[in-house]
Amino acid sequence: MKSVKIVSLLVATLFAIPAFAQTTATPRVDQRQENQQKRIANGINSGALTAQETANLEKREAKIEADKTAAKADGVVTKQERAKLHAEENRASKKIYNKKHNARTAAPTN
């Protein structure tokens, strides 16, 4: 139960991060991050994701956020950087789907 609260706090924190970022250079990546955070939160609430699975997914999302920040560091997000971010988002999306639809479950938090 304690790990579920920690994971929920992580999810809430990651929802807040895009609000403070300068999002004009990567609006599609930002939208996908938001959508994937919602999918993870839904998985937690429904019990489809265990605490370990959620931690793994959040770690992946944090890496995407760090890569996005690094891409924006010089003020320009190149086509190659954008392609890399989209590829990372695609892999993360597949992982979310696979982890939500495997046989492992946790107690729903509703």
Question: How would you describe this protein?
Answer:
By secondary structure, this protein is mainly α. The protein has one domain (2-100). The protein contains four helices and no strands. It has helices at residues 2-20, 27-46, 51-72, 79-100. Helix 1 (2-20) packs antiparallel against helix 2, helix 2 (27-46) runs antiparallel to helix 3 (51-72) and helix 2 runs parallel beside helix 4 (79-100).
Contiguous helical run count: 4
**Can you give the helix content as a percent range?**
over 70%
Computed over alpha carbons, the radius of gyration is: 14 Å
Tell me the number of strands.
Answer: 0
Distance between the terminal alpha carbons, to the nearest Å?
13 Å
Bin the strand percentage.
Answer: under 5%
Main sheet, how many strands, which sense, barrel? none
Number of domains: 1
Molecular shape:
elongated
Query: Runs with pLDDT <50, length 5+?
Result: 19-24
Give the ordered list of helices and strands: HHHH
**Mean pLDDT, nearest integer?**
85
